[in-house]
Amino acid sequence: MNVVLLGAPGAGKGTQAKVAAEQLGLVHLATGDLFRDNLKRATPLGQQAKHYMDKGLLVPDEITVNMTRQRMEELAGARGFIFDGFPRTLEQAKALDSLMSDLGQRIDRVVYIKVSPEALMERLSMRWICRQCQAPYHEKSNPPKVAGKCDHCGGELYQRDDDRPETVRKRLDVYFAQTAPLIEYYQKQGVLREVDGEAPIEAVTRGLLAALE
Ligand code: AMP
Question: Which one of 51, 100, 120, 151 is least enclosed by Cβ atoms within 10 Å?
Fold first, then answer.
């Protein structure tokens, strides 16, 4: 089974993808995590991506699709993928359809995690992420058990540079202009399901798993 999680930055895609991937035995493929990993290792790809990420802009489609294709090839043999943060443009969605069809597979389900713009702003500015395992936390609604430490792996928690308010606003504008049209794209394919992303985390997980049954 191959799944796309669709939703704005801060909708909870990362949190939910992690749980769903574990429960369903799928590989969690998050393009934002791949870019950040390249940034950390100062690879040429990371240097290219940094320019866009710092401004809250999307990395060009060609670079993003090539990176995703390469990662999928490295993970050949996986039972299926849960894509988080990809696709983010119509071009990427079409490229993913063709990558899938080359593998004799398809995107079986797209789950749109719906959250209002006001809630997204609030969430992103209070988000903390684990440096080691990327698990996300929220200062108020999902704090770690020990301040500054990841519950899962004990890693250090940090605030992403692009979670600063000016960049957050830009990222949300980019989402509504370039990514939101994918809702209609997948609706037309008949694979879209919607869950209320403002419900408690466990309820969103239940909704997501039900949508994937
Ligand atoms: P995320 O962690 O998904 O919020 O991604 C962080 C940043 O990485 C984004 O603001 C973009 O600059 C870049 N990025 C991640 N995924 C994509 C994508 N599918 N297409 C273009 N840029 C991306």
Answer: 51
